Amino acid sequence: VFLQTILIGDSGVGKTSLLVQFDQGKFIPGSFSATVGIGFTVCIWDTAGQERFGSVTHAYYRDAHALLLLYDITSKTSFDNIRAWLTEIHEYAQSNVVIMLLGNKADMSSDRAIRRDEGERLAKEYSVPFMETSAKTGVNVELTFTAVAKELKHRA
Ligand code: GDP
Ligand code: MG
Questions:
Q1: Residue with the nearest Cα to atom 11 of ligand 1?
Q2: What distance in Å separates the CA atoms of residue 30 and residue 94, rounded to the nearest whole number?
Q3: pLDDT digit string, tens, across residues 22-41
Q4: Which spans in 1-155 are helix H?
Q5: Which residues contact 102 (CB under 8 A, 6 or more apart)?
Q6: 108 Cα nearest atom in ligand 1
Q7: Family per UniProt (predicted)?
Q8: Are 43 and 2 in contact (CB under 8 A)?
Q9: Residue 65 near ligand 1, beta carbon < 6 Å
């Protein structure tokens, strides 16, 4: 079974960096496949060049089992745009899609524009899990992908 996970959010929030951080495995080798289980393959897709509303191909949304929605904790604009991304997701994605909200660049606390509790509140409003991550230091990256894998397994 192929489970597709897609990274979504404004340009510059760290989607590609997060994927690189995950791929390069600063997590325990094998732990991810152990979480998902034998017979399950989770593919993670980046959305380079599709970072404005209306530009993520509808087929991407339709075929996605999980969506990781990112903002940058140092960018109010990227946070404000999360509502628009969620509107688009709810319009095109499957109703049982696993969604997770991520406040990335958590290492840049001196430039922080969005407090953690603002992220938490928005996530709560949309009933999605929330995590602050750093693609730079790897903070919460493994935890994020493991949580998504567990949720996917649960719903499969
Ligand atoms: P994308 O457009 O969403 O794919 O964003 P990128 O992955 O290309 O990242 C945009 C910029 O932010 C790059 O200069 C990255 O090095 C930087 N960046 C991404 N994630 C982090 C992070 O967690 N912490 C810090 N300090 N910089 C980050
Ligand atoms: Mg990118």
A1: 12
A2: 29
A3: 877 544 556 666 677 777 77
A4: 15-23, 31-36, 58-63, 76-80, 82-92, 116-125, 141-155
A5: 18, 68, 69, 70, 71, 130, 131, 132, 133, 144
A6: 26
A7: Belongs to the small GTPase superfamily. Rab family.
A8: yes
A9: no
**ipTM rounded to 2 decimals:** 0.99
Q: What is the pLDDT of residue 83?
A: 97
pLDDT value, residue 13:
98
Q: How far apart are CA 118 and CA 4, in angstroms?
A: 28
Q: Would you state the structure tokens that stand for residue 140, as one six-digit string? A: 């919460």
Mean pLDDT (whole number) for 93-107: 97
The pLDDT of 36-60, averaged and rounded, is 82
Evaluate: CB of 136 within 6 angstroms of ligand 1. Answer: yes
Q: Are 66 and 3 in contact (CB under 8 A)?
A: yes
